[in-house]
Amino acid sequence: MALGTATATASASYELRFDSGRICLDLLATTHPEERLDSAEPLRAWITGSGLVPAGTPLAAADASWLVGFRELRGHIGQLVRGEPSRDSRPFGIALARVNELARTAPPVPHAVWDPGGSLVRALEGPPACAELLASIARDTVELLTDSAARASIRECEGDNCPIVYLDTSRGRRRRWCSSEVCGNRERVARHRRRAALARA
User: Fold this and answer.
1) Span 144-167, average pLDDT
2) In this predicted structure, what is the pLDDT of residue 183?
């Protein structure tokens, strides 16, 4: 999975993040601070940046119709990872059934090929279909939900108005923010301002 911010493949207007620790959670992050998957171009950038496909994979078929499937799956993932699983929750059950259904499709078929520099690299048999990519994300969601250790590491950012969900793999499991540079820095600045205001009072 790619980490960091995909600024090379996406313009600043849709800076995409890939630092949640899971592809399914990275998809969830595309809603903040505003809708990132608003057209085919950022969707293609997200598909490549997330590591779902190798760089250079043709994605010409990824058009506005794909957005519907990715956004629908994203909504189901949010339903499943926020809060505790519940057999009695109808919304949870609907989301789980849909993710399981999407996971049934076979994901894109990878194979190893030689690159011009003489190294083996991953490539796909052909351009991926939307259903194949959704299956990869759905399977990642199933793996997350059924791995008790990973599920116990799911956190929601403590930053003001930040809904980003991530896996806390830090030492001691003390990570508080989706990003120390973004929400963590905002919190430190806000704390400094509060102290300065108290000192002046």
Assistant:
1) 92
2) 82
Separation between Cα atoms, residue 111 and residue 30, nearest integer Å: 29
What does the DSSP assignment read for the chain? Answer: ---SB-TTTS-GGG--B--SSSHHHHHHGGGSSS-S-SSHHHHHHHHHHTTSS-TT---TT--HHHHHHHHHHHHHHHHHHSS---TT-HHHHHHHHHHHHHHTSPPPPEEEEE-TTS-EEEEESSPPPHHHHHHHHHHHHHHHHH-HHHHHTEEE--STT---EEE--SGGG---SS-IIIIIHHHHHHHHHHHHHHHH-
75: Cβ contacts below 8 Å, ≥ 6 apart: 95
pTM value? Answer: 0.84
pLDDT in tens, 32-68: 889 999 999 999 999 999 999 999 999 999 999 999 9
Residue 194 in tokens: 């509060």
Separation of CA 174 from chain center: 21
Q: Which two tokens stand for residue 193?
A: 């301002």
**What distance lies between CA 26 and its chain's CA centroid?**
1
User: Within the chain, what is the greatest distance between any pair of CA atoms?
Assistant: 67
Angle between helices 64-81 and 90-103 (to 10 degrees): 130
Report the distance separating Cα 98 and Cα 104, nearest Å: 10
pLDDT at 2 over 50: no
